[in-house]
Amino acid sequence: MKRFVVFLMAVSILLMNFAVSFAAGVDVGIVLPTKDEPRWLQDRARFEDVIKATPYSVEVLFSQGSSAAEKTNVETLIAKGAKVIIICAHDAAAAGIAVENAKAEGITVISYDRLITGTDAIDYYVTFDSISVGEAMGQYLVDNAKGTGNPLYLYAGALTDNNAFLFFQGAWNILQPKIADGTFVIKNSTQALALKGIKALTREQQAAIIGEVTTDWDMNVAKSKAEAHLTAMGAADKGQVYILAPNDGTSRSIADVFAADTDVSKYFITGQDAEKASVQYIIDGRQSMTVFKDTRTLASDAMNMAIEILQGKTPATDTFYDNTMIQVPAKQSPVVIVTKENVKSILIDSGYYSAGEFTGL
Ligand code: BGC
Questions:
Q1: Are residue 285 and residue 299 in the same domain, yes or no?
Q2: 108 shares a domain with 54
Q3: In total, how many domains does the chain have?
Q4: Are residue 29 and residue 11 in the same domain, yes or no?
Q5: Is the pLDDT of residue 116 over 60?
Q6: Cα pseudo-dihedral 220, 226, 232, 234, rounded to 10
Q7: What gap in Å lies between CA 272 and CA 171, rounded to an integer?
Q8: What does 279-323 look like in DSSP terms, one character per residue?
Q9: Sheet holding 124-128, edge to edge
Q10: CB within 8 A of 82, min separation 6: which ones?
Q11: Could you give the CA distance from residue 196 to residue 177 in angstroms, rounded to a whole number?
Q12: How many CB atoms lie within 10 A of CB 134?
């Protein structure tokens, strides 16, 4: 029986390889982390727009939050003859092995939005200015706070995502002086309270705070954390509150929890990505702001870079990112703060979304 199973497995692997080797070739392979976080569906749609306009063959694969699936995706693209791979990693460190395999085949690797760390097997990085994303969030909360003793609730992204550190670092740059001077009082993180006197946190110190208030980029984790926090707090820790939420999906679920608490009179909450559902929340006054990262720019920057590489040119970059192993040449895009006041001009008038997708604009 065991032998028969092994035989069947061997046959199916052979058939898979056969199918791969006879499948159409791919010039550029794109690997995105998951369909479950709406951000990456936006990126796929934007990639599809750019792909339509190129003569090259491009394939987009999703890794569904699994480093193993991600590695298989990269192997599939290698087998299909990809010359450039654009990859947004599920897990910054775990993706190293997948891109090392690609590099060994002479493929050029572009790290997309999330920096892959601890490897020399990436050639370029295309990203938004993630520190400024966090700074914009921190600044929004500061700009809306008066007096002292304002309750502050902190939430962060996934520890496996280098961006979660950059967003937190940016926010902390702005919030820390206002925590130190008493404008804000942290309510939900003993780690952050212990470190509140330090502006320039080490990676380990950041990890201690992020580990405590992480959402894992998961709306359900965010919801249950927020519920646990509010259950543990008395009325005096609520009232008008300030919430650092790391992205739109988690922001909506945290906002719903705070909105349902009768001791919360008003909340200010951050977000990023300008997801459609959050744009509606902003119009309705249920989310305070989002940081708009124009995925049209990121997708076309990455594809243009790939095309230049295919044409034997060296793509232009404007900065470097340290991935703990090498300085990665990077192309970085700016971000825009969106609130109820400018949502129409930034997101509708620019053609990113159409007015008909929302109510109450
Ligand atoms: C991205 C964010 C996104 C988050 C969760 C981050 O790496 O930069 O835009 O919201 O991952 O998917």
A1: no
A2: yes
A3: 2
A4: yes
A5: yes
A6: -150
A7: 13
A8: HHHHHTTSS-EEEE--HHHHHHHHHHHHHHHHTTPPPP--EEEE-
A9: 58-62, 28-32, 84-87, 108-112, 124-128, 327-333, 319-322
A10: 26, 27, 28, 29, 59, 102, 107
A11: 9
A12: 29
Domain that holds residue 279: 130-293+338-357
Q: Answer yes or no: do 135 and 166 share one domain.
A: yes
Q: Which amino acid is at 285?
A: G
Mean pLDDT confidence for 200-215: 98
pLDDT of 222 > 80? The answer is: yes
Please tell me whether residue 35 adopts helix, strand or coil conformation. Answer: coil
Run of H or E including 64:
none
Q: What pLDDT is recorded for position 2? A: 52
* Model pLDDT for residues 166-179, shown as the tens digit of each residue: 999 999 999 999 99
Is-contact 128 293, C-beta < 8 A? Answer: yes
| Predicted TM-score (pTM) of this structure | 0.93
Burial of 79 (0-12, 13-18, 19+ CB in 10 A): middle
263 with 280, same domain: the answer is yes
Does any ligand 1 atom lie closer than 6 A to the CB of residue 112? Answer: no
114 within ligand 1 shell (Cβ under 6 A): yes
231 shares a domain with 211: yes
Q: What is the CATH number of the domain that holds 92?
A: 3.40.50.2300
CA of 214 to the centre of ligand 1 (A): 13
Q: Examine the domain organization and report whether 87 and 47 are in the same domain.
A: yes
Q: What angle do CA 210, 111, 169 make, to 5 degrees?
A: 25
Q: Are strands 124-128 and 327-333 parallel, antiparallel or unpaired?
A: parallel
d(CA 81, CA 59): 11
Q: Which of 160, 247, 333 to mutate to test the pocket of ligand 1 (most atoms within 8 A of CB)?
A: 247
Ligand 1 geometric centre to CA of 247 (Å): 7
In this structure, the answer to whether residues 60 and 139 fall within a common structural domain is no
